[in-house]
Amino acid sequence: MKGSGRWFTIGLVTSWYSSNIGVLLLNKYLLSNYGFKYPIFLTMCHMMACSLLSYVAIAWMKMVPLQTIRSRAQLLKISCLSLVFCSSVVGGNVSLRYLPVSFNQAVGATTPFFTAVFAYLMKEKMESWITYLTLIPVVTGVIIASGGEPSFHMFGFIICISATAARAFKSVLQGKLLTAEGEKLNSMNLLLYMAPIAVAFLIPATLIMEENVVAITLALARDDIKIIWYLLINSAMAYLVNLTNFLVTKHTSALTLQVLGNAKGAVAVVISILIFRNPVSVTGMLGYILTVTGVILYSESKKRNKGEP
Predict the structure, then answer these.
(1) 35 Cβ partners below 8 Å, 6+ apart?
(2) Which of 53, 97, 254, 272 is least crowded, fewest Cβ atoms below 10 Å from its Cβ?
(3) 67 phi-psi bin (left φ>0, alpha ψ -120 to 50, beta other)
(4) pLDDT > 70: what percent of the chain?
(5) Could you tell me the sign of the dihedral formed by the alpha carbons of 137, 288, 260, 47, in that order?
(6) CA–CA dist 6, 13 (Å, integer)
(7) What gap in Å lies between CA 283 and CA 291, rounded to an integer?
(8) pLDDT at position 120, please?
């Protein structure tokens, strides 16, 4: 039984890595290399898949118990989270049009910095001074990586930083809004409600900002049917990212999840460089290593502070 459990966990982690890195690389390929320049529509496809597959997983397959929304106030809170959530995803996808995956991941690694800032501003939650010190290499590393990035693009960088900040803001906002005992939702149920609301936000945004994208996509499909398969596979993987993240969190320890999460970004960087052959500099890689080191120190400091009486 122990052996089968170990293989089950290995399979989960492999699926988690594959879906995370796969959706990231396919997003990059579609938005940059393939020339499908419609990140809002792509995000809408992701959210539609998450809506459908979340319902299948919870209502039909009973993977987790269904948690219901109990009040209009709770629905409003979830809607706010959904708006921030889809903004961060759109921003991340837009940035991939302009930045290589390696630099995108370096910027994304600064999430703990923004989380600490928003936690202090919104919850007035102070960390220890040592924890704040660990954020210095996180920020310094990105500054160094930016200066050494051969493919640096200012607009892409600003959008990527904004998406990273939005992701951190959503995490802190979730902790602040859904705090009442009856309002807490596990990540699977939260996605079940957030994804359709995100679609409602993204439909008008797509129609206004990416006019005729459906007709353009169908025209592309007449010349190359693979675009439909790319979008379907990409959207399914976007849901698998959330599903496998939930399952890995459930079946591994916090320490294992922390180590795996830190390693995942580095694996994505290496694979993306091998696939897309984007130029990298020693300065850029040193900056990224410094940022990841800072993230590890930050996580370790937070863990130690939690263990204090």
Answers:
(1) none
(2) 254
(3) beta
(4) 95
(5) positive
(6) 11
(7) 12
(8) 87
pLDDT single digits (tens) 200-222: 999 999 999 999 999 999 999 99
CA distances from 283 to 56, 137, 263 (A): 47, 14, 20
Q: pLDDT by residue (tens digit) across 32-62?
A: 989 899 999 999 999 999 999 999 999 999 9
Per-residue CA distances from 24 to 163, 179, 205, 215 (Å) = 14, 31, 22, 25
In 3D space, the residue among 306, 263, 288, 298 whose CA is nearest the CA of residue 135 turns out to be 298
| The pair of three-digit structure tokens given for residue 66, joined into one six-digit string | 């269904």
The three-point CA angle 112-116-122 to 5° equals: 135
Q: Which two tokens stand for residue 119?
A: 């936690």
The rounded distance, in Å, linking the Cα atoms of 11 and 18 is 10
Contacts of 111 (CB under 8 A, 6+ apart): 164, 167, 168
Tokens at residue 165, please? 């900040």
- Helices and strands, number each (H, E), in the chain: 12, 0
Q: How far apart are CA 192 and CA 147, in angstroms?
A: 41
Residue 299 φ then ψ, to 5°? -60, -40
- Cα–Cα distance, 233 to 84 (Å, whole number): 25
Please give the full DSSP string across 77-88, using - where no structure is assigned.
Answer: HHHHHHHHHHHH
- Tell me the residue type at 166: A
How is residue 41 written in tokens?
């529509």
Residue 176: pLDDT band with limits 50, 70, 90: confident
> What count of residues does the chain have?
309
Contact 22, 264 (CB under 8 A): no
Which letter, b or e, does each residue of 26-59 get, where b requires 16 or more Cβ atoms within 10 Å of its Cβ?
Answer: bbbbbbbeeebebbbbbbbbbbbbbbebbeebbe
The CA distance from 2 to 24, in Å, is: 33
- CA distance between the termini of the chain: 37
